[in-house]
């Protein structure tokens, strides 16, 4: 019976997700845990490099990251898009401009994520491609701290659009309309190839790819389309 099946869904779900996924995974856990009260969850939120370490040590059931590992073969499913955008204080002169050349972005004081961050890698490779170097004013190990530093006038930065999903209509931050942006990225749910997923992990993965995806699209997708970056939403 269904009750028996539900009874089977007991145990611990171990998740490890990159920092930007904290803007949607915890939200999805609410309805999931209500439906399966026998499941308890441990959620690690950390940067790309630490996720890779955890993956190599096989510490978790499932991972959410936006750049696939090359050290290990994984099974992956695309969840949602995770565009990286240029953020500036709302009152910054560039906030009024359109189609800002990437050289102008490189000329601004810049706040960078810490080494080991996937965001940092993506930013670095875009500017390397254009043979530009950034004027890095400050390294900060947290998206939230970077948002505060931008609002405080320390510089501009490039972060996932999802980091501003909960900002109200009078946000102190503006998304700049810059050439070569947004940097297109996606979140993937990942596990090592050949790993036998527990019933609990399989249940969560199915949930993530169906209803979870819808919830995430509703909460963050709205903001994504408001800013005119909805084209890649799948
Ligand atoms: P990060 O991960 O927290 O390591 O920057 C985000 C990403 O890779 O998109």
Automatic annotation (TrEMBL):
The keyword Transcription regulation applies. Keywords: DNA-binding, Transcription, Transcription regulation. GO terms for molecular function: DNA-binding transcription factor activity; transcription cis-regulatory region binding. Belongs to the LysR transcriptional regulatory family. This is Transcriptional regulator. It comes from Allocoleopsis franciscana PCC 7113.
